[in-house]
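Quick review question:
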């Protein structure tokens, strides 16, 4: 593979690839742990992690061995298998008790679409409340609940309602937590009173907003949304595509006694790079209406043995190695290291995050500045993800602490060297 192969692909591939991937222009010959190696031997520390997909690390030995063994035995078809049985057993050890059924899909968007269909089927209603800055996918149903991505595509799916998220650093009500008493949920209540026809099927929410820059809501926010859904006889859908499987320092960011989502969407790190997602709910809900009819909720590749084996390996590692706890401790240390190293830097507006999903919000005015920061970091050997005005960090949950802190120090040194003054 030549070093210019990224450019060589351009006449063949569609142009709508990830912004950060295009800016990087990387060609990868091999990868291990949290490092990418280019054809010329140069190494890059991968804190992009495909926006949270790289949960166990590149080329994790146990994952590679399990997938190789499965590939050599059977890979095509959704019939019963030891891989699917193992997947169900391992994932059920992690899931909240009320979510006793698992349906596999291929992508996060597909799973969100399925979750919306399930909510409509189970309730007999058609309205979905989602939130500003959300990202739920780019298929037409999920796109209706993805902020800033619908321009030029016509009207969204009927019944789509949107309200502000609890982004306390940029509160639309100009209030301050905790004195606000989470007034944004009261605003969502007002939005429903004005816009809903009384047919609310579900409240769809990211427990932590990923593309918005890893924005965490205040304590009690998700519980208030649970109450809001109950007031309307609606379901609560937690889109844990990015947050699930330990990424934010707990196995699932919505798994709390006061929240108890009716439907959970999993993706990204669920397969550690194998394209697999899941909708998890209860048999009582899944068997209702058209969703539970034969073939009504199936997917062409859902339940294929390679997908099941990938999920089983990830779920077993998360459970047996307490990767959520590891992400929590490493994340706290990484967050503190970055906050100390970047304190007082005019470029940096906020450093935030939960577990190993961190965001460095920049005080910049446009994409050109963001691109410059991104490429300066890459030149120093650190690859990050972007989103809005934010550098997003998603190291694997298995990351070596010394290597992780070294990458954080490099990141801080680059920002200070190039952006010490506005």
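Suggested answer, residue by residue:
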């Amino acid at each position: 593979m030549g070093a210019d192969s990224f450019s060589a692909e351009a006449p063949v591939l569609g142009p709508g690839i990830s912004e950060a991937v295009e800016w990087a222009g990387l060609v990868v010959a091999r990868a291990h742990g949290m490092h990418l190696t280019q054809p010329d031997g140069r190494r890059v520390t991968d804190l992009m992690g495909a926006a949270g997909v790289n949960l166990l690390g590149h080329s994790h030995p146990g994952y590679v061995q399990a997938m190789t063994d499965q590939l050599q035995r059977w890979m095509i078809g959704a019939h019963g298998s030891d891989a699917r049985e193992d997947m169900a057993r391992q994932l059920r050890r992690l899931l909240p008790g009320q979510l006793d059924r698992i349906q596999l899909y291929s992508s996060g968007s597909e799973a969100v679409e399925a979750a919306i269909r399930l909510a409509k089927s189970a309730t007999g209603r058609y309205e979905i409340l989602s939130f500003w800055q959300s990202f739920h996918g780019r298929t037409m149903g999920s796109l209706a609940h993805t902020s800033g991505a619908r321009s030029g595509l016509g009207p969204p799916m009927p019944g789509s309602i949107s309200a502000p998220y609890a982004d306390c650093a940029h509160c639309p009500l100009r209030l301050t937590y905790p004195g606000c008493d989470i007034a944004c949920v009261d605003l969502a209540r007002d939005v429903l009173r004005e816009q809903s026809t009384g047919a609310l099927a579900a409240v769809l929410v990211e427990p932590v907003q990923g593309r918005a820059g890893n924005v965490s809501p205040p304590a009690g926010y998700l519980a208030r949304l649970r109450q809001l859904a109950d007031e309307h006889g609606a379901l609560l859908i937690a889109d844990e595509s990015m947050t699930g499987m330990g990424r934010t320092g707990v196995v699932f960011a919505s798994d709390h006694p006061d929240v108890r989502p009716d439907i959970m969407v999993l993706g990204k790190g669920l397969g550690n790079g194998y394209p697999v997602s899941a909708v998890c709910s209860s048999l009582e809900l899944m068997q209702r209406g058209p969703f539970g009819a034969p073939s009504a909720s199936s997917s062409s590749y859902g339940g294929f043995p390679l997908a099941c084996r990938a999920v089983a390996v990830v779920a077993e590692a998360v459970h047996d190695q307490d990767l959520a706890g590891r992400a929590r401790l490493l994340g706290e240390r990484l967050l503190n290291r970055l906050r100390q190293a970047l304190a007082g830097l005019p470029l940096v507006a906020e450093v935030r995050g939960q577990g190993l999903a961190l965001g460095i919000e920049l005080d910049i005015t446009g994409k050109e500045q963001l691109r410059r920061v991104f490429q300066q970091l890459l030149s120093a050997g650190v690859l990050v993800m972007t989103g809005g005005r934010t550098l997003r960090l998603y190291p694997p949950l298995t990351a070596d602490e010394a290597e992780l802190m070294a990458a954080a120090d490099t990141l801080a040194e680059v920002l200070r060297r190039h952006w010490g003054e506005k």
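Why it works: The chain is about 35% helix and 15% strand. The chain has a mean pLDDT of 95.
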